[in-house]
Design a protein that fits this description.
5 strands, 4 helices, Rossmann fold
Length: 177
């Protein structure tokens, strides 16, 4: 009996040596690589330029003076939808935020606050146009409409599209090691 018990000692020793290796936690897989931000030729400077130029023209237009004359107060304008017809993945939230910021800074009109009823809504669309010699321009068209959907003001602006640099390819490093 004693000899047979000794035969099990190497088997038990091997099992004890392998068991810790089996119970080691497996490192989690690396997190998935975040999808690349869509590449666009539109910049934050484009948003600022378009908002400043077009809203200066809109708030200097005769409709503002006519509204103030008729109502005895400044018109309240809400920022509505701006539609991306470019296929260029424009940052529409940033564009609308910049339009709202410029409206809020105006001393000729009031930006519509939450819960307030607007007298008019600002909205529009942006498209890409070919300008020859490989140049492409963003055509920014904005309009202000009153509550009856009548256009009070309309204007457009062309902005040069800059070719975006490609995003660098992310490098996935091995975990552990």
């Amino acid at each position: 009996m004693r000899r047979s018990a000794l035969l099990f000692v190497p088997v038990i020793a091997v099992a004890l040596a392998v068991a810790p290796a089996c119970s080691r936690p497996v490192p989690p897989p690396p997190p998935p690589v975040a999808p690349a931000k869509p590449v666009t030729g539109w910049t934050a400077g484009n948003s600022q330029h378009a908002a400043r130029v077009l809203l200066d023209a809109a708030t200097s237009h005769a409709w503002v003076a006519a509204f103030r004359q008729a109502k005895g107060r400044m018109p309240v304008i809400a920022v509505g939808d701006v539609v991306d017809n470019t296929g260029d993945h424009l940052p529409l939230d940033e564009i609308q935020t910049e339009l709202g910021r410029v409206l809020a800074a105006s001393d000729r009109v009031l930006a519509c606050a939450q819960g307030q009823v607007a007298d008019a809504t600002l909205g529009g669309a942006i498209k890409l146009i070919e300008a020859g010699a490989g140049r492409r321009l963003f055509q920014v068209d904005l309009r202000i409409r009153d509550r009856s959907n009548e256009t009070l003001w309309f204007n457009g602006l062309e902005i040069e599209r800059t070719e975006p640099a490609p995003e660098p390819t992310p490098v996935v490093l091995p975990v552990g090691g």
